[in-house]
Specification:
Distance between the termini: 33 Å
Structural class: mainly alpha
Shape: globular
Largest sheet: 4 strands, mixed
Number of strands: 4
Mean pLDDT: 91
Order of helices and strands: HEHHHHHHEEEHHHHHHHHHH
Strand content: under 5%
Radius of gyration: 22 Å
Helix content: 40-55%
Length: 342
């Protein structure tokens, strides 16, 4: 290799390293001394082990073994919302006897016959969860089929779950493009399982809704959720946590100052008109309210940068204190956020 090519290669490697460092969390604290042995409950298999000719008996046995999960599953996840009087027995019966659900179950068993590979990542997640939230118990983890109702969830502090049917790959036959557009389908794969679970744990710690209705309230709420998720999953690229492509992440980094300036120019930060700014804080292919090519949820990404700015200036701040800081304006002022011009 001649000297010129070597220099170019070195430059490319340095550029890649810079981009990766700008798009990922640090390695995080040493949590190797925190004992953790979480096993995933294959609730999906337990449900389909019920004899459809003995639904009542099977349901009683399931509830005895997994009382919380069974009540949540029959009362919420698969409950027919158009039929308030539907009983748990009717819900299970209809679920098990539906041909499309059986086909879905068979597909999941082919894609995820065993989840031991996932348990390693989940234990890594929960060690960090215990480190940052020492007062919270480690919840049980259940794998379920919800007919595309939920990808990951928490149920109080004692239970969380993974909807395996929403991680079958972007080309899975069951993902109707009208319901699951391409930018959503791209994230419906195994790489996002632990990330989705991490986000639900972060939301559980924060509370379900932002403390206010302005764009800034929502940006900082979601920014804190992303910050906590990144800390629970150190080493995970920011692009994965955001659900962005590499190009979207690089564009966000390159145009951070321009996006912030646009938000200020249009006086969007204190707007309560959700319809005007919703693409900035909810999944969307783009966010034309700032720039036509800006990715959806760019407001959340900026909120994340504001939170990072605050924590860099105040590294002694505990997660508990951070999540209790609900005055968006005071937080923004304390963060002294000022994106660098690229």
């Amino acid at each position: 290799m001649n000297c010129l090519n070597h220099t170019r290669l070195l430059g490319m490697l340095m550029l890649f390293a810079w981009l990766y460092a700008g798009c990922s969390q640090s390695d995080g604290p040493d949590v190797s001394n925190i004992p953790m042995d979480v096993k995933i409950i294959r609730f999906d298999k337990e449900v389909f082990a019920i004899d459809t000719n003995q639904i009542e008996i099977g349901l009683a046995q399931l509830r005895q073994k997994y009382p919380e999960m069974t009540d949540l599953f029959t009362g919420t996840l698969i409950h027919d919302q158009t039929n308030p009087s539907e009983t748990p027995q009717q819900a299970i019966s209809g679920f098990l006897k539906a041909p499309q659900i059986r086909k879905l179950y068979d597909t999941i068993q082919l894609v995820y016959p065993d989840l031991r590979w996932l348990e390693k990542d989940i234990n890594h997640l929960f060690r960090h969860h215990k480190y940052y939230f020492p007062g919270k118990p480690t919840p049980k983890v259940a794998a379920v089929i919800s007919e595309f109702a939920v990808d990951a969830f928490t149920y109080g502090d004692s239970l969380c779950g993974i909807g395996l049917d929403l991680f079958l790959g972007e080309n899975f036959w069951g993902y109707n493009p009208e319901i699951f557009p391409a930018y959503i389908r791209r994230q419906l794969n195994r790489d996002y399982i632990v990330i989705r679970l991490g986000k639900t744990l972060a939301q559980n710690a924060m509370g379900e809704t932002p403390p206010g209705k302005t764009l800034l309230d929502m940006m900082l709420y979601n920014g804190k959720m992303l910050y906590v998720t990144g800390k629970l999953l150190p080493g995970t690229p920011d692009s994965l946590i955001m659900g962005y492509t590499r190009e979207q992440m690089e564009g966000s980094l390159a145009n951070e100052q321009a996006v912030w300036a646009r938000l200020l120019e249009q006086k969007l930060l204190y707007s309560t008109d959700f319809d005007t700014f919703k693409k900035l804080v909810t999944p969307s292919p783009n966010a034309p309210v700032v720039f036509q090519e800006a990715p959806g949820e760019i407001g959340n990404w900026v909120g994340w940068q504001i939170v990072k700015s605050y924590m860099e200036r105040n590294p002694e701040t505990s997660f508990d204190t951070l999540l209790k800081m609900t005055d968006a304006q005071k937080f923004l002022e304390a963060a002294k956020y000022k994106p660098k011009r690229k």
